[in-house]
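Data availability (excerpt). The following record was deposited with the supplementary files.
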Amino acid sequence: MSNDRTAELLAAVRAVESGERSADSFFTERKQPASPARGPAAGGAQDRAGAGGVPAGRAPAGSAAPRPAHGEGRAGGRIVVPEEVRALLAEGGAPESLAPRAVEALGEGAADVLRADPWQLLAVAGVQPEQADGFARALLGEEAGPGDARRAVALVVRLLERAALRGDTVQEPAALAEGLARHAVPDPQEAVREAVDAGAVLVFEDALDAGPAHSTPGQGSGQGGEEEAGEEERPVRMLFGLDRYALAEESLADALARIASTFDTARHGREAADTADAAVASAAPGWSTAAEAAPSPSAKELITTAAGSGLVTHSGGEASRAEIAALVVAARQLGLRAWALTHTDDGRARMTRLVEAVAGPDGTAAAAASATAATQADEADEADEADGETGPDGQGAESGAHAVADAGCATVAGTLAGAEGPERDAEGMLAVDLLAVCDAPQLDAEGAAALLESLPDGARLVLSGDPEVLGAAGPGQVFRDLVAARCCPHVTSRTPDPGPVGELVSGIGVGELLQVEAPGKEVVIVPVQDAGEAVHRTVQLVADSVPRAIGVPTHETQVITPGHGGSAGTRALNAALKERLNPGPGRFAGFDPGDRVAHSPAPGRTEVGTVASADEEGLHLSCHGRTLTVPPDRVAETVRHGWAMTAHQAAGLRWPAAVVVLPGDATQVLSRAWVYTAFGRGERHLSVVHGAGDALPRAVVSGLSPERVTRLRVLLTESARAAEADEVGEEDTGSTD
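Predicted structure:
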């Protein structure tokens, strides 16, 4: 490409990014080509799905540019960039630094993919639509118009991927049309059709009444057309989504229906029903005894409910986790293989302490675990003996796993990776009889589907969590959808969180910002006028006031703020806290030994640790008794200083003391869920550096987070009602016989 063309492209990109010109202005300067041939409209007769929400059809395979699996193009952990990729990016005026990311996103054949469809550059992390438009113009010239079908497909996919970052698994047509209009797409509706026809997007029609229509009296008993005539036309909602999230939600709905029917003998054959009845009857006395010995009324209710149900949801605050511990101990005392899974290592450690406390000093939990271990695979002992075993992302586990394994506690991520948790049988299923998942609101659709697909038939599943905390980092709202679908028993804990902090947080959960009595300075409000004062007072609290007045040392105090940027975001706060608490040149990629860090190996997973050392292998961290190494090329992407972090990062974590910073320039991001999550991170003490004015009470009273757009609730309700209809039909048939 000529230097003039390169200069023109760079100038265009800068103009769009600065707001001087709109993206469509660069297209309208040239004559637009004729629109490509159009396929049948999405949602047409041949494409329509049933009202139950089955995909309305896939487009012909191969009609959309394929995207490889994440990581293709790597060699020995490092990305190999073919020369033709660099050459094509240079021809299109794109920076050479995009080359590794392009190969990671599109594979070693990235050059061929981009030559055929320049807008596939949007699949590369960090590339904006305006930049992809400029790249396409550089390669295609006048052929690159705003109505190009390839551009339409890429933009629809991008909008759905951006929606997934907000937690949505699908989008409504109006939302897609609005997003496409912002990118100067001349016919948004046609663009969506083209994306469906290209096989890049699936279209669904979900029933708004979320259940099979009932036949009118006197109808539905005839044959053929008479039965169809008795069906009422059902209102539907059209939705569009990417196949990965559609498959995850459908797989999840199937797995939940399977688990929920564990003790539903009406859904099984006569022999299976007799077997299930016998199993429940034989275990009933033991469960009854365990329930009577439960440490609280809510724990008794949970144990009783789980005894006769394959699937149970359980909600409550931090104190309710003791009820899960009581359930796990009770199940293990009955000889069942019971495990509790948490979202974080910190949560696992807290659950381990609760299990040990419930079991008591007589070693009941250890005895139960030993009895359970006899039924597991012989390899369990060898796995427990491993010291420094390498796990995902180069993490190494230390021998402290013994106590955790004995207590039956692990993390969800570690269990899915096979690094901890229950063993797997020959078919790859988890060797468990009861699985209790804490922090269930942190489960996204894909993670939950992967976990539940590994749960064997006959196992009990309890999903537990606090419904008021911030939701999962990934797309989906599994816990909320499952509770709303009412397809399984639900237990609401009546155990309140203790102390002034617990009282304050409980009030926030119901929309009230209470003035609680705190005689021991458990809750302190520190008013500030501006961000500079907020940073100063925060450092003062962490380094001096909280340790001196409250007795909580600095390393057990966590700062939480709304965002990373801004004059009182995590970057500014961490810089000030490092200067006070652990000054140094940052000779290891900006870090020094002793720095507190937040390690995020994957979206939604954050662990707080300390820098131990660094060498050519990477940054060595100490996190919850484990030593892990972050490779040099992953440090910038996954490690931040961690004295201050966001509430989203802190979800699932707890500290003895928390300092929550509310700067005046971050009031727009405050919501009830954010305040509830941030304020609830402190166990004994909470300091609020308050510069948000009336935005705080307003967020608590009316700042409800928007509902995520998902399909799981409809899928679950449809499945449950269809099963009920089948049971009614079987009963009618039996009575006729």
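Summary of structural features: The longest strand covers residues 605-615.
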